[in-house]
Amino acid sequence: MLKVVGTEAVEENGVDGRSLLDDIAREGARRMLVVALETEVAAYLEAHRDERDDDGHALVVRNGKGRTRKVTVGSGTISVSAPRVNDRRTDQDGERQRFTSRILPPYMRRSPKVAEVLPVLYLRGLSTGDFREALAALLGNDAAGLSATNIARLTNEWETEYRAFQKRSLANRDYVYVWVDGVHFNVRLEDDRLCTLVMIGVRPDGTKELITVEDGYRERAESWKTVLRDLKRRGMRPPA
Predict the structure, then answer these.
(1) Which of 30, 105, 160, 218 lies at a 20 to 30 A Cα distance from 144?
(2) Which residues of 176-189 are buried (b: 16+ CB within 10 A; e: fewer)?
(3) Which domain holds residue 117?
(4) Domain count, the chain
């Protein structure tokens, strides 16, 4: 199991051990995000500038800024106040229209790219208890929404998604070619070395997709037979 060992910032020649480069990268990311959010709102206001009420007042106007929140991105954790929009338009059913940022949706606290790296760290052997310290080193002490509790919750979500992926029907999928291989790890279970059995297929239009990922042992024939039986049970047809 990987273990993260914390280190203290070292001062050398009177300069703080924190990297100025990291500070610059975070500030640059914050400024670019602010500009992107302002541009998004400006485009929304422009698209509805001609929509007015009976008194000629604009139905879509700026409404200050939201509360400052911390958002974790690839360069670290930054603070940002997103601009707000007051949209008084209603649809045919009388429901109030709302502006929702596609760049920074409500309640988003980390970028999708940050979320993608979490299962990689987990699969590399980082324990959920060590995530906080590891991510603080990578993304800063204020890394948002990445507590040990949240990591444990995400781990359960990954496992649920994997189980659903492994049970999905393959009856409507056609493959013209498949690759199969075993990925070996330096993890032993009793006297056997763990091996992950992987199958990737090519669709008739040339796109590739992952068909299955299963645990096996030393790529034994029986392990592969178990995988193939399961694929057949789920409706997979032999490749052309």
Answers:
(1) 160
(2) eeeeeeeeeeeeee
(3) 112-166
(4) 2
